[in-house]
Each structure stands twice: as structure tokens, then as C-alpha cells.
Fold this sequence. Notes:
Layout lengths: L4 H28 L4 H26 L6 H14 L12 H29 L7 H29 L16
Amino acid sequence: MPLDEGLLRIYLRDHLAGSVAAEELAKRIRGSNPGTEIDAYLGTFLEQLRDEQQTVASLLRRIEGSPSLVKTAAAWAGEKAARVKLNGRIFGYSALSRLEELEALLMGIRGKQALWEALREVSLRHPLVDADELTRLARTAEQQQDAVEGLRRVAARIAFDAAQPEAAAAPSKAR
């Protein structure tokens, strides 16, 4: 069965745009939680994400595609618009902001893992991407899920602990 490169280009462009939104979200979370476990982990996460973006962009070039500026701009703007939400504060960041943002990041990571798994299926018939590389990327996504899930659980406990002062609300490196 021949590969539908047109649909694959659309799929890759969608995921690449989504990764731009995830990158902006991770930078925001990191900037709102300086000196914490979240900050430290997301530094590593952002390096991995940029490498993954290069992998997707490279695959797009192999099938004579390029990133969609419109989709990328829409994803970037969508992430910015998602920041406007009720979080129990008129202005500023709250423990609920942290929890919701980590949950959004976790959803993005799960979507990215689905991308690697779908491409692995495609690579069985159309060796556009090294199956071992896709396995490695899927494994990295699993590790990212585990790490962000751990941070999310701590953030959930902190967000709903009425006795927790906001100043100490971010998960710290001391844990």
C-alpha cells in the first residue's frame, strides 16, 4: 500500500505546531516556578522537546514538506489565550494555575507519544524514520509523562491544601 504523504505532512505539521504550544507552556510554567523541582525538570524537558521538533521537521523535509506557519502561529497564540482563565486570583499565578498547566503539558506529552507510536506503525511499511529512533522517542515520552505526572500530583496536593501558604506552594528541590 503506498504512503499518503499529503496526509502525513498534515499530521506532522499538526504535531509540530502542538509542540510549539507545549514549548511556550513549559517556558511559562518554568518561569512561574523558579528554583523549584519544576524549573529544573522543565529545563531538561525543553532541550528534549527542541530535539524532537528537529526530528519532526527533518521528517517533513524528507517528504517534501515544511512547517505550517499558520498552524504554528495559531498554536502559539492559542497557548497565550489559554493563560486567560479563572485561577482564584484576579491577577497573577496561583497553585491552581500550576496544577492546570502541568495537566495541559501532560496531555501534550501523551499526544506526542501517540505521534511516535503512529510513526512506528508507518515505519513498518515505509522506512522514513528509523524504528529504533521512534522506539527511543516513545520511551523518552513515557519518561516525560512519569516525571510530569509526579510533579502534577504534588501540585494537586498543594493546590487544595488550605493550610499551604502560597509562598511555599511550588514543589521544591528539597523534597
